[in-house]
């Protein structure tokens, strides 16, 4: 954690403190508390100190793990298994005990807690800027290293994927499967089978995973379709992997698009165009440039080639239909946004750059690298090659 | 989803509608919308109909997947990539478009959205009872089958664990490792190695996983310690596995405690006592009994044997220091609670029963089964044997 940046960004709050009520699943909570509590707990930042309040069951582990200045437990506020009101009373006592009469909460903090504190006379303001999210966006060297390490696991999983695809046979007339379906050891090679290979590879390297995308053909034309069923020759197969290190909790993110066999002329053009869009967007990455600038650089490549983007047609369902990238950290999607309205880039921002083209009649192509913004540009720490046709 | 129960529980709301702003990570959202959206989206229940609002990128998939009566996209409200205020304006228009001037939100709904709607003249009340959580607690037959299926994967993973432990050697004077450490293929058998085996087994069976517990010795005395480092002979090793089916999104949950070698007399007594507490608690499970009754049944077994519980000593850090169980469904921890204050059991509740004893000087023992409450008692669908000493 960058404590100086945290203190700086929270210095001009108009409230006495900053309150988070969430489990470790909330990246702001994990960042501020440093504690991997599985159930919601309170973290209060006030007077430059971080205070954590947990249940008795978590107390020992929280004392050992938390990056907080103080850890307390429910029993310190005479709370036993009581009802909801008793719990909210305890929360109010904990906040007041720190000399705090007004708190800011992040926009996605729980309204139940906010309203309960208000009923108890504590002022609650919404920190609409989500300052902790902004603090988290700029990584320390240690955080960058954690992401880099997760990216190495990512590349091992991508390698396993490419090997599986490159080694596949293609069903012909004599086979049981439909002609053109990829075969692995005589069985149709499905999205699910490739995903399993990816996830096992990541687990063996200490990473957890959420929702890997292995989508071919028309499925690849929906950027959020995770893919299912048999993969086929001559179609574009999008593989998007975003592992999370179990040890550090930091994510990585990378996409490659593969084709086994002969892609159509259109797919070849799309791939070449997308490589150019990737290069153009990366070229635009430097401190002072905005996320919007980087997005514009990718859009221009597509627009000049006559492909629709959200800039030329906000309702288009084909073409370049998403943003150019996003920050990566404790959340796989975090600040900054590389999109229209995207904020200014700063050294330490870790971002993806991931242009793509989509049309159900053609398929989908996306290429995604992950990079850190440096003092004079960026360092791309994606080592995986960019190659379309495999096998 | 039990739509009749949903309609019934939402019938007497004092607001016009019920609003959820969350991603699929929120079980209420996944349940009500039926849509696996990765980013937060709105679901509004009003006049007996479910309406979903998503971004353009999710629209096609939401139309196919969602269990809603209507799916709309941001463009239907003339929203393009705008700022926060424009987004909140769109949310208010979506709500009003359904004839809704007041909404209830669950206690953990986002305060940012609640306050933004209030600023736009829409009344927002907190549904402190979390009614959707209550609706979710009672499962349909289909939901029970989904949990049962995840439990079969769980048992395969537990079998792999027991085989690994039972097949382990114990380091002696001639070995590199410390005497008493378990060895697998000549290397110390660690919590991490066993966890990996569990997770790979679950992945191969279509399950995701979050935080498996494999904790031995003093680590097992902290019920939430996930365990790390070499496992040892003659100590109690707690293995708590809670997989989630990727297809259905339903969880299972089971714990066993194993010992390779010779457990101490105290550990043997604890194990026997915990088996008795499990039986006593299960015997108390029937419709009309409360979660508090079931918890009391387990506590009494321990208390009669002189072991501390939260009932006899709210601040104890040893003995039976957690609740007896919890509901399982889309969340691994959900209603009902089998604890002091726990609600009345109903047919269709799927619950864990998991008594245990803990003391850093002795170790930890926990045995956990999963069962469904039936019309006249319960059906325990845990098939895994209860045996302490293995190998």
Please characterize this protein's 3D structure.
Two copies of one chain form a homodimer. The model of chain A has no long low-confidence stretch (mean pLDDT 95). In chain A, helix 1 packs antiparallel against helix 6 (131-137), helix 7 packs across helix 8 (191-204) and helix 9 packs antiparallel against helix 10 (291-304). Chain A has two domains: 3-136, Creatine Amidinohydrolase, Chain A, domain 1, CATH 3.40.350; 138-390, Creatinase/methionine aminopeptidase superfamily (Creatine Amidinohydrolase, Alpha-Beta Complex). Chain A is 33% helix and 23% strand. In chain A, strand 3 (49-54), helix 3 (56-65) and strand 4 (70-73) form a beta-alpha-beta unit. Chain A is of the alpha+beta class and 391 residues long. Chain A has helices at residues 3-10, 27-33, 56-65, 84-97, 111-119, 131-137, 141-166, 191-204, 265-283, 291-304; strands at residues 17-22, 41-46, 49-54, 70-73, 102-105, 123-126, 169-170, 182-184, 187-188, 207-208, 213-216, 237-241, 244-245, 254-260, 325-327, 334-338, 350-353, 356-359, 363-366, 369-374, 377-380, 389-390. In chain A, the strands form seven sheets. Chain A has a six-stranded mixed β-sheet, with helices on both faces. Chain A has a four-stranded mixed β-sheet with strand order 11-12-14-22, covered by helices on one side. In chain A, strands 7-8-9 form a three-stranded antiparallel β-sheet, with no helix packed on it. Chains A, B: Belongs to the peptidase M24B family. Chains A, B: Residues 4-138 form the Creatinase N-terminal domain. Chains A, B: It holds the Pfam family Peptidase_M24. Chains A, B: Keywords: Hydrolase, Metal-binding.
